[in-house]
Design goal:
263 residues; globular; single chain; two-stranded antiparallel ribbon; seven-stranded mixed beta sheet; 20% strand; Rossmann fold; alpha/beta; 9 strands
C-alpha cells in the first residue's frame, strides 16, 4: 500500500528485466482481484523480461475511496497513475489498460509525452459524442444501487447479451453476477457517479501521441463500441486496430500484446 494524493493505493509490481516497465489499469468497477478471475490479457506473460505494475484505481478494490465524484474523472485518475509511476521511480514506461484503464492511459500519455514508449488500449469505452447517453445511464445506475441494491444490475447482467466473444460462455455471466453480489453498494454508486465526470482526451489532442499504439476491441458491446476504437485508430498516427468477434480471436490478445511490447 502506498499513499499518494491523499489516497491509499494498493498495487503490485511483478517481473524483472531490462525491458521498459508496463503499467496496466483496470476497468470501471473492476480491480486487480476481479481481473484475476476474468483476465482479458494474461499480464503474467508480459512480465517476462520487464516489470509489470498493476494497481487498484481510486475508489476500487483495496485502494481508498472516491471522496468526491470529480475524482473519478479519467483525467484525475491519470494524475493518480502518474504519481504512482513517479513514486516508484519508473522513468520510461509502456501503458495499457481496459476500458477506464485505456482512458487513463491516454490522459497519462499526454502528460508524460516521450516518457511513454508504447500504448495498449483495450476495449475503449464510449467517448465524445457517444458519451452523453452513457453518463446519463451511470447516474441511473447509481440511483438504482442506492435505492434497490445490486438487484437491477444483476438482472441486467443476466438478461443483456454479453460481448460477442462471450456469447457461448455461460461462466461469463456467472462471474459478472458474483462480482456484483459481492460489491459494496455505496462504493459502487460512487464509482458510477465518478464515471459521469469522465471522457477521453479531446480528439484534437490525440494526434500528439505518436508512440506505437495497439488498440484491441471486441464487437457486440454498446458500452465499448467499435466506433471508439476505430476513431482512436484514425487519430493516433502510429496505431493498429484489432477486432475480436469470437473467443478464438479474443484469445490472441495476450500474444499480440507480448509481441507488440517486445517488437
Amino acid at each position: 500500500m502506498i499513499r499518494l494524493r491523499d489516497c491509499d493505493f494498493a498495487y503490485d509490481l511483478s517481473g524483472v528485466g531490462p525491458a521498459t516497465p508496463f503499467v496496466w489499469g483496470h476497468g470501471l468497477t473492476s480491480s486487480r482481484a476481479s481481473e484475476n478471475r476474468l483476465p482479458l490479457v494474461d499480464l503474467s506473460l508480459l512480465a517476462t523480461g520487464r516489470q509489470v505494475l498493476r494497481y487498484d484505481a481510486r475508489g476500487h478494490g483495496e485502494s481508498g475511496d472516491l471522496i468526491r465524484p470529480e475524482q473519478g474523472a479519467w483525467s484525475e485518475l491519470a494524475l493518480d497513475q502518474i504519481a504512482l509511476i513517479n513514486e516508484l521511480g519508473l522513468d520510461k514506461v509502456a501503458l495499457g489498460g481496459a476500458s477506464m484503464g485505456t482512458a487513463t492511459a491516454l490522459h497519462t500519455a499526454l502528460h508524460l509525452g516521450d516518457r511513454v514508449e508504447k500504448l495498449i488500449l483495450t476495449i475503449p469505452p464510449t467517448a465524445w459524442a457517444s458519451r452523453a447517453d452513457q453518463i446519463g445511464l451511470y447516474e441511473q445506475m447509481a440511483q438504482a444501487v442506492e435505492t434497490q441494491g445490486v438487484a437491477p444490475l444483476v438482472y441486467g447482467a443476466k438478461t443483456m447479451p454479453p460481448p460477442d466473444p462471450f456469447i457461448d460462455d455461460a461462466q461469463y455471466v456467472e462471474r459478472r453476477v458474483e462480482g456484483l453480489e459481492a460489491a459494496d453498494t455505496a462504493r459502487l454508486a460512487s464509482m458510477f457517479r465518478g464515471a459521469g465526470h469522465a471522457d477521453l482526451p479531446a480528439e484534437d489532442a490525440l494526434p500528439a501521441l505518436t508512440m506505437p499504439a495497439l488498440i484491441l476491441a471486441w464487437t457486440g458491446d454498446t458500452g465499448h463500441p467499435v466506433s471508439t476504437a476505430e476513431r482512436l485508430g484514425e487519430l493516433l498516427p502510429n496505431s493498429a486496430v484489432v477486432l475480436a468477434s469470437t473467443r478464438a480471436e479474443l484469445d490472441t490478445w495476450t500474444q499480440r500484446c507480448v509481441d507488440f511490447l517486445n517488437g
